[in-house]
Amino acid sequence: MSSGSADHVARSAIVPESETPLPARVRMYLRTADGVDVDARYEPGAAGSAPGGPVFVVAHGFTGDLDRPQVRRVARALARHGAVVTFSFRGHGASGGRSTVGDREVLDLAAAVAWARGFGHARAVTVGFSMGGSVVLRQAALGGAADGTPAAAGARPDAVVSVSSPARWYYRGTAPMRRLHWLVTRPEGRLVGRYGLRTRIHHRDWDPVPLPPVEAAGRIAPVPLLIVHGDQDAYFPLDHPRMLAEAAGDHGELWIEPGMGHAEHAAADGLLHRIGDWAAARAG
After folding, report:
1. Domain named AB hydrolase-1: which ranges (predicted)?
2. Domain at 127, CATH number
């Protein structure tokens, strides 16, 4: 495993010089600014094999990880538009630590973005789903910092795509979200998460409460922001993306997708390709 800060990881990984062909694939552990080892994978992609091309950093939803079939499908679709970095948030898959359900995860994303830039990509686009959708908003607004932790060098993205994100915390207005709160807040729920869903959840409550996604959306400018939400989302109704879009103002764009459900499971390949086109046009 690697050691040091997120900036150290980005600089000390096996990074090719501009005249050296990029490796076909790199998988390694990144050390976040607060000392958590995060499992990450880099793939050049069809359109991003040359240094300087765009790189997409994919932030999965709660209980996902970089090896899940739906995350691999997202990576394959975005690889047509640039290089792709996937990683597992803390407490998920092979990563260390415990999930804080979107709080300290901004440091995981910051380490992944800094690492991605180390491969020579001048443009980095963060694409997050559900919990990951809230993390990409907060990470862009905070520059990769959390609770006084210094921001990682090179961690600020050039464009942000937030898919199926909540606008506010502690939402319990739908049955799936009530089940999720049981999973996170109850000891028996956390056991289900650990042994049934490969997700190790921290037992402590947030202290302090993280910046809400709706407030983060208003702080991202001038970085371009795309908000995507399905009109059949069973977790978060349409007032959530509309609140985010209103907070984002002129620098944000809202896509309400007819017939789409929640997060990466429901994101069709056609939507992912449109996201890739949007990002390639907006980033930089």
Report:
1. 57-266
2. 3.40.50.1820
Of the candidates 194, 209, 28, 235, the residue with the CA atom closest to the CA atom of residue 116? 28
pLDDT tens for residues 168-177?
Answer: 999 999 999 9
The answer, yes or no, to whether the previous bond of 222 is cis (omega within 30 of 0) is yes
| Entry pTM | 0.89
Could you tell me the CA-to-CA distances from 200 to 180, 195, 208, 259 in Å, in that order?
14, 9, 21, 32
d(CA 193, CA 58): 22
Tell me if the bond preceding 210 is cis, omega within 30° of 0. no
Overall domain count for the chain: 1
Start-to-end Cα distance in the chain: 33
- Domain annotation covers residue 76: yes
What is the domain extent for residue 192? Answer: 6-282
Residue 1 maps to a domain? no
Is 184 within a domain?
yes
- The one-letter amino acid code at 259 reads G
Each residue's pLDDT tens digit, 77-121: 999 999 999 999 999 999 999 999 999 999 999 999 999 999 888
